[in-house]
Amino acid sequence: xxxFTQFVDLASQRLxxxxxxxxxxxxxxxxxxxxxxxxxxxxxKYTDRGHWMDGxxxxxxxxxxxxxxxxxLGLPGILRRAVVDxxxxxxxxxxxxxxxxCDLGDSAPYKDETKKLRAAATQWEEIVPETALEGDSQxxxxxxxxxRFTHVRFKIYPDxxxxxxxxxxxxxxxxxxxxxxxxxxAAVENGGRVISTxxxxxxxxxxxxxxxxxxxxxDGxxxxxxxxxGHDWAIVKLGMPGTIHRVEVDTAHFKGNFPxxxxxxxxxxxxxxxxxxxxxxxxxxxxxxxxPLKANRSHTFRRQLHEVGAATHVxxxIYPDxxxxxxxxxxxxxxAADRLTGIARLNYLSRRxxxxxxxDCCGSKKWVEQVLAHRPFADDSALLDSAExxxxxxxxxxxxxxxxxxxxxxxxxxxxxxxxxxxxWSASEQxxxxxxxxxxxxxxxxxxxxxxxTFGHVFLICAxxxxxxQILSSLQQRLGHDAETEMRIxxxxxxxxxxxxxxxxxxx
Length: 508
Hints:
Largest sheet: 8 strands, antiparallel
Radius of gyration: 28 Å
Number of domains: 3
Oligomer: single chain
Strand content: 25-35%
Mean pLDDT: 90
CATH topology of the largest domain: UraD-like
Structural class: alpha+beta
CATH superfamily of the largest domain: Oxo-4-hydroxy-4-carboxy-5-ureidoimidazoline decarboxylase
Distance between the termini: 39 Å
Shape: flat
């Protein structure tokens, strides 16, 4: 498999990707950037503006700055690799490029899209820093896993032409967009992808999971002619675990080269990370026994399927070789998306929703952004490790912002605005402390004021399970510290609070 086979071009026109804005397209239209085919060059073809080029090309910049365009991804997701194709641009390609991403949420078409994309309040995250380009080349750049994006801003420095832009990654469908009904668990738009295959000589197996019926033989998966024993196969990771009720194997356009027969196996390997190494040890179960196939026909299998329970991966076996245009795996998600819990729920939330959930755990926007940069999380431990790593990047200003998000012990309101969830958690954490006597609570209130006057921030302690007497004792002891020591201790208490809240979030 090539380096892109496991991933989907999220900007592909066939998935609905489009260029919605560009600051300049004098020589070449912005729409050319996402055209499906390979770029071409026509010698001697000119327009009234210059030589015709199959790509996006801006005029020569005479002022400082850069040119840019904004791409709406056809499917929201997490980017893994970008390819900037400068084919046929030799003396007019950009010197460098950069990519930024943002998440406008789950509603598409996006209301006031252009206005939001231009707004200063929209948060753009750098996903590829300024990187040198070569002319007439396929320039590939890895993207460090970050959050879920709906739009990408493509910057070129200072100007020039690019033939194609490909943005490969993993689809992260909307939680609210997945209904409690039968759906194609393998479809690209639901997060399905091909992670391994025996052969893809003529065309890529990912084509089998694309929307709609295939338009030609090239729009499917076709292997070379097998001359030895064995058979060809492709392993599909379902977009979400599910129970399978119906399967379709379509051989449209394959007439003299369709498989003689097929069979299907499934396994439950939830949590396997790029999965391939662990799948050989998985307990594969037969979903469909070997059945004959016909040329240029859609085959539906329902009654022939065995009861195999929930599955995360499906292996389509074809005998001995040949071509399949589409492969559909219909069923119900093992967990309805709106009932996802733990790390799976946090990974499926939109970037905005995930940021709000993390902000309830720790009131620092910088901390939240640092943690989100590591999404999707492989497991609970990966999230907790990311939280600790993010704390190491915070300065005094960040810590003070966090402290303002906590109400003083015995009080209900924090200096900074809290969400309902954060208020409920604060009340729960202080529940035992609130049961102290009136005299103790009065002394505690006075001590809180003395502490804040001394250090300039609220007294912070992980109050869960602590009585008002225990908290008062700790407060009086800490009043004797210097400011630097107390800042460190308060930071350690915040770490404890954040960990408890993250555990609550994962248990929600």
